[in-house]
């Protein structure tokens, strides 16, 4: 809208980098939305985002920006965009995005990240899953054998 | 271990919250989620917090002991179902029960599974599940001609103080016996009965235990004859009844009923005097005097209706405008009429319907005309349609009868603002659009030019072209 000044908020990442974004973009995060409602402050809002580094936050905000204007796009356009967005994240970033979406309460991003990790698990053997996600097996061979026995239908 | 593998980021270091891992597992099939318990100690019990459990025989993989994947021996449908039952048996033994939201069974039912299903229902009830869905649909009816129904153990829902906090129940291919006063479904909002064996008495008992029910859907329940919903269902807002072949009457005393949809044979519908239905949808299949019913009786059955959907099929006798309109839909603002394969090209009988709704603002007409045939000309009195603002017609073929009807609308609806016409798919299906459409198009447009008044927002579209003109 011409002439109407957009409401901005400033988000501060855990490593101290400030991001100035439109309020409607930041409010994709329920955590921020609630913080803004409680504060009731209109101008010069600074919101610290603990545990989220600037690299991750900039990627999170890219997501929020797209979804804040979701109504301007067709549904399948957004889906395509989501797919590309999560596809280009490497494993580190994927973990960070999941953790950030959880702490910032961005449900759509959490779903997207969880689906992506699930797709990496699907169709792999336990050993392949361990290798991919660097999961250390701390069972004794006997314990592992027992768990496998309990779920025999899974390993016929 | 080589260098690259050692440096892979560990999911256990990065993701601290077990809830996030559980979220990830919720995106997998149940069998695959359970498999992750073998990864390490942390993952051992994550899956037992899964909020949604689904038993299904269609989407799980089997893995061999050596880890090779996607190798599946040949299995018959019955073996697959056996396996799904075995998985769920093992899951309900291990799941912690905490935070269980939905429990869904989506497998065909055979008598031998009754014991397992009883255990699952008991588990879900003890875990205070919010939604219980039993889709026990039949698989190939030719392979298994004996349809078996699961006798749902209602008493298992009421283990604590004869009350249940379940919010949604969905039954398909179940048999329901509901003893009077069995307990209260004090939180049940939504109840769906598809192909359920339930008779009038048990139905009434069931409905009377659900004091806060808002949404009820009944479909293909062959034992129901007289369906009555009494005052206990004060909060019922939505009721759908779909093809219950033995049904003779539906009697409703639900003061807050908002939407009502009926599809099926001709029955007696009665609402209490305070019928509050604002959205109605009625289809009496194979009733030749359906239109007379709509004009003579329906205004009294649904007096507050503001949106009405009607289905007219080939059996319906299309009587023309009655000379006197006895009853009116005093609140009707939006009328949707679907005409299913009517032979003949006269649409002027619709005028009687429009005239019975003096406040009508929006009219949608869906035509599925096979062969319009020659138009039937009948003199029709002009009745003013003072409030009609929007008309949409789907399945337009440009036939003479349709043009006459459009002309009638344009002539009598003085406040008409918007008219959208969408061409028939049928005609394109039966004949080459390139050959037929241009001639129809030009002829039709020629007629429309004479009919459409200036100032009307008018759009006509076929599959191959759209044309808008605000004035000619």
Automatic annotation (TrEMBL), chain A:
Domain SKP1 component POZ, first and last residues per copy: 7-68
Domain SKP1 component dimerisation stretches: 108-153
Keywords (A to Z) from UniProt: Ubl conjugation pathway
SUPFAM superfamilies found in the cross-reference section: POZ domain (SSF54695), Skp1 dimerisation domain-like (SSF81382)
Pathway field: Protein modification; protein ubiquitination
A Pfam family: Skp1
GO biological process, one term: jasmonic acid mediated signaling pathway
Function, in words: Involved in ubiquitination and subsequent proteasomal degradation of target proteins. Together with CUL1, RBX1 and a F-box protein, it forms a SCF E3 ubiquitin ligase complex. The functional specificity of this complex depends on the type of F-box protein. In the SCF complex, it serves as an adapter that links the F-box protein to CUL1.
Family designation: Belongs to the SKP1 family.
Subunit (UniProt): Part of a SCF (SKP1-cullin-F-box) protein ligase complex.
Protein name in UniProt: SKP1-like protein
Automatic annotation (TrEMBL), chain B:
InterPro entries: At1g61320/At1g61330-like (IPR053772), F-box-like_dom_sf (IPR036047), F-box_dom (IPR001810), LRR_At1g61320_AtMIF1 (IPR055357), LRR_dom_sf (IPR032675)
Occurrences of domain F-box (ranges): 20-51
SUPFAM superfamilies, per the entry: F-box domain, RNI-like
Name of one Pfam family that matches: LRR_At1g61320_AtMIF1
Secretion signal, residue range per the UniProt entry: none
At1g61320/AtMIF1 LRR domain span: 91-419
Full protein name: F-box domain-containing protein
PANTHER family: F-BOX DOMAIN-CONTAINING PROTEIN, OS02G0105600 PROTEIN
């Amino acid at each position: 809208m011409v002439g109407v000044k957009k409401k901005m908020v400033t988000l501060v990442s855990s490593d101290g980098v400030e991001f100035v974004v439109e309020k409607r973009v930041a409010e994709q995060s329920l955590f921020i939305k609630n913080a803004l409602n409680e504060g009731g402050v209109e101008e010069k809002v600074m919101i610290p985002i603990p545990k989220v580094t600037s690299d991750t936050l900039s990627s999170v905000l890219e997501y929020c920006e797209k979804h804040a204007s979701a109504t301007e796009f067709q549904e399948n356009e957004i889906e395509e965009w989501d797919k590309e967005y999560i596809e280009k994240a490497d494993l580190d970033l994927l973990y960070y995005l999941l953790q950030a979406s959880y702490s910032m309460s961005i449900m759509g991003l959490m779903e997207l990240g969880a689906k992506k990790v699930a797709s990496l698990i699907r169709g792999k053997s336990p050993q392949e899953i361990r290798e991919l996600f660097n999961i250390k097996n701390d069972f004794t061979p006997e314990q592992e054998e027992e768990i496998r026995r309990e779920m025999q239908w899974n390993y016929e | 271990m080589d260098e690259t593998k050692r440096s892979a980021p560990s999911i256990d270091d990065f993701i601290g919250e077990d809830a996030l891992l559980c979220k990830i597992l919720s995106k997998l099939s149940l069998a695959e989620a359970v498999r992750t318990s073998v990864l390490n100690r942390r993952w051992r019990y994550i899956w037992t917090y899964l909020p949604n459990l689904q038993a299904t025989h269609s989407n799980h993989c089997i893995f061999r002991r050596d880890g090779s994947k996607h190798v599946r021996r040949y299995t018959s449908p019955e073996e697959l179902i056996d396996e799904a039952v075995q998985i769920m048996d093992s899951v309900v033994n291990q799941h912690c029960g905490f935070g269980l939201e939905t429990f869904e069974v989506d497998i065909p039912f055979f008598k031998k599974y009754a014991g397992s299903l009883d255990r699952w229902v008991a588990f879900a009830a003890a875990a205070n599940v919010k939604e219980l869905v039993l889709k026990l649909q039949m698989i190939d009816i030719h392979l298994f001609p004996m349809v078996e129904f699961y006798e749902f153990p209602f008493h298992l829902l009421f283990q604590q103080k004869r009350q249940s906090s379940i919010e949604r129940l969905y039954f398909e291919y179940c048999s329901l016996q509901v003893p009077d006063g069995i307990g209260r479904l004090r939180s049940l909002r939504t109840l769906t009965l598809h192909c359920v064996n339930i008779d009038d008495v048990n139905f009434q008992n069931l409905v009377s235990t659900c004091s806060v029910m808002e949404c009820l859907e009944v479909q293909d329940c062959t034992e129901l004859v007289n369906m009555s919903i009494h005052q206990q269902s004060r909060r019922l807002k939505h009721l759908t009844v779909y093809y219950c072949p033995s049904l003779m009457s539906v009697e409703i005393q639900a003061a807050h009923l908002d939407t009502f949809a009926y599809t099926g044979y001709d029955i007696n519908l009665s609402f209490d005097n305070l019928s509050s239905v604002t959205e109605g949808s009625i289809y009496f299949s194979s009733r030749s005097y359906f239109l007379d019913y709509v004009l003579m009786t329906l205004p009294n059955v649904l007096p507050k209706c503001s949106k009405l959907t009607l289905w007219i099929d080939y059996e319906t006798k299309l009587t023309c405008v009655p000379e006197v309109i006895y009853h009116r839909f005093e609140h009707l603002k939006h009328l949707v009429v679907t005409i299913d394969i009517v032979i003949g090209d006269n649409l002027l009988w619709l005028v009687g319907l429009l005239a019975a709704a003096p406040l009508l603002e929006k009219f949608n007409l869906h035509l599925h005309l096979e062969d319009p045939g020659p138009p039937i000309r009948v003199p029709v009195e002009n009745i003013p349609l003072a409030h009609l603002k929007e008309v949409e017609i789907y399945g337009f073929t440009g036939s003479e009868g349709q043009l006459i009807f459009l002309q009638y609308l344009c002539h009598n609806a003085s406040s008409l603002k918007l008219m959208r016409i969408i061409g028939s798919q049928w005609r394109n299906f039966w004949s080459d659009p390139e050959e037929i459409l241009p001639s129809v198009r030009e002829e039709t447009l020629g007629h429309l030019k004479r009919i459409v008044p200036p100032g009307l927002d008018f759009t006509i579209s076929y599959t191959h072209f759209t044309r808008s003109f605000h004035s000619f």
